[in-house]
Amino acid sequence: MESTLLVLTAAPDEPRTISCLRLARALRQAGKDVEVLLLQDAVLLATQRPAVGGSTSEVPREGVRFLVLEDDLRLRGFGKDDLTESAQLTTYRAAISRMTEAGTSVKGCF
């Protein structure tokens, strides 16, 4: 199965984040294997704390896996215990490896 990796850097309350989550959900409903790589302020989306303004809480996330860059999460004062169930930590090396896997389509949601 072809997989799609969406790369997101926007904070949870930005319109780009909502668009990215909607795209992820649409791809998932179309039968695609979807992951969202969260970098920079986007890592806050995967924490258990609600997003500022709550705007992303209205967008369903079921079936979408989140890869959270460990260094960016730590720089924002969070750790593994702060992540939601659908999120897993990743390193720079593992993220690059995932992006270059055969059969993976990478799309930026910057």
SSE arrangement, N to C: EHEEHEHE
The coarse overall form would be globular
Number of strand elements: 5
Major sheet summary line: 5 strands, parallel
Helix content range: 25-40%
Q: Please, how many helices?
A: 3
Structure report:
The chain is α/β, with parallel strands linked by helices. Helix content is 26%, strand content 24%. The protein contains three helices and five strands. Strands 4-3-2-1-5 form a five-stranded parallel β-sheet. The chain is globular. The relative contact order is 0.27.
What would a concise description of this structure say?
With 110 residues, this protein is an alpha/beta fold. It has three helices and five strands. Helices cover 26% and strands 24% of the residues.
Annotate the secondary structure layout.
Layout (H helix, E strand, L loop, with lengths): L2 E6 L6 H15 L3 E6 L26 E5 H6 L11 E4 L1 H8 L4 E5 L2
List keywords for this structure.
alpha/beta, 110 residues, globular, single chain, 5 strands, five-stranded parallel sheet
